[in-house]
Amino acid sequence: MRVSVPATIANFGPGFDVFGLCLEKPRDFIRVKLSDEIEVKVEGYKVPEEPDKNVASVSALSLLRQAGVESGFKMKIKKGIRPKSGLGSSGASALGGALAVARLLDIDDKEIILRAALEGEKVASGSPHGDNIVPALFGGFVVLKSLFPLEVFKIDAKLKLVVILPEVEVSTKRAREVLPKHVPLSDAVRNLALASSLVLALENGDIEEVGKLLDDYLAMPYRKPLIPWFDKIRKAALENGAYGVSISGSGPAVFALGENLDEIGRAIVGAFEEERINAEYFISKVGGGAE
Ligand SMILES: Nc1ncnc2c1ncn2[C@@H]1O[C@H](COP(=O)(O)OP(=O)(O)OP(=O)(O)O)[C@@H](O)[C@H]1O
Ligand SMILES: N[C@@H](CCO)C(=O)O
């Protein structure tokens, strides 16, 4: 069984752990067949091949356990999403492992698949956050109202965005460790205003307004030390026509909305190079989810 799972942008500005946007590319490709033993082979970006360390095999095993199936599997992962990129690399693999086994067993219950995928995500980031896995499964832009029971609101957003991938790493685990247990009420209110306005603007197809709402007071202020270059990058993007810029997931990838996405991408890459950080950009439409 072969599945293809896209990269995703979690948080998407003010929606910490709740908003997620599915991209068309890059993707992880995972092939699984049932077998007596357990074997994981990886090509592309390097990730562990030990079955208890690779998030795709962890989620595949979790799905088998949930289904009460005593079996091993042979798994091949063609890793197209760079790990620690902020593009949901671990989330894509975690979903892919669970989805491939679910399809082999003719299981299409999304909660079972998500429960297994979160087991994999937990291995990578230390906590089972769903805002990479869920948009990768559903496609589009999702608001994750609740994981269990699974309640998702989806907008089939029609937009293109530019994603910039700098050659630095940010571990999600570390990026979550620096977060406070509580935030000031005023910041929570400001985020509520941004997040609810962003959903309405997206629903209305007002992409310029969506861009202006790409801010965050829940995680970004505490993660700035991990991404010291962000303010400079954001300034360069806005000076070159971006409607708005934000961090993808816990970073380091950033994304921007605007008219001339190539021009914005080049400007951001240039700003990274001034910080002596190599970077590349690509343009993607909103994706339709795992296939
Ligand atoms: N199949 C896999 N794909 C990606 N990462 C994996 C996989 N298996 C294990 N890992 C490990 O998970 C960690 C990546 O987790 P992390 O969440 O930091 O990266 P990410 O998922 O790319 O980032 P983000 O969640 O911000 O998009 C790395 O240590 C990586 O080795
Ligand atoms: N919501 C998660 C996304 C990680 O990709 C975080 O910001 O920690």
From TrEMBL:
Domain GHMP kinase C-terminal positions? 201-267
Q: Which GO terms describe its biological process?
A: threonine biosynthetic process
Reaction(s) catalysed (UniProt annotation): L-homoserine + ATP = O-phospho-L-homoserine + ADP + H(+)
> Its function?
Catalyzes the ATP-dependent phosphorylation of L-homoserine to L-homoserine phosphate.
Q: Does the keyword Flavoprotein apply?
A: no
Q: Where in the cell is the protein located?
A: Cytoplasm
Instruction: Write the protein's name.
Output: Homoserine kinase
Q: In which pathway does it act?
A: Amino-acid biosynthesis; L-threonine biosynthesis; L-threonine from L-aspartate: step 4/5
Residues reported in the UniProt entry to bind ATP: R82, P83, K84, S85, G86, L87, G88, S89, S90, G91, A92
* Record-annotated GHMP kinase N-terminal domain positions: 60-140
Q: Does the keyword Ribonucleoprotein apply?
A: no
Q: SUPFAM superfamilies of this UniProt entry?
A: GHMP Kinase, C-terminal domain (SSF55060), Ribosomal protein S5 domain 2-like (SSF54211)
The gene name on file is thrB
Give the record's GO CC terms: cytoplasm
Gene Ontology terms, MF aspect: ATP binding; homoserine kinase activity
Could you say which protein family the record assigns here? Belongs to the GHMP kinase family. Homoserine kinase subfamily.
The protein's enzyme class: transferase
* Keywords noted in UniProt: Amino-acid biosynthesis, ATP-binding, Cytoplasm, Kinase, Nucleotide-binding, Threonine biosynthesis, Transferase
Record-listed E.C. numbers: 2.7.1.39
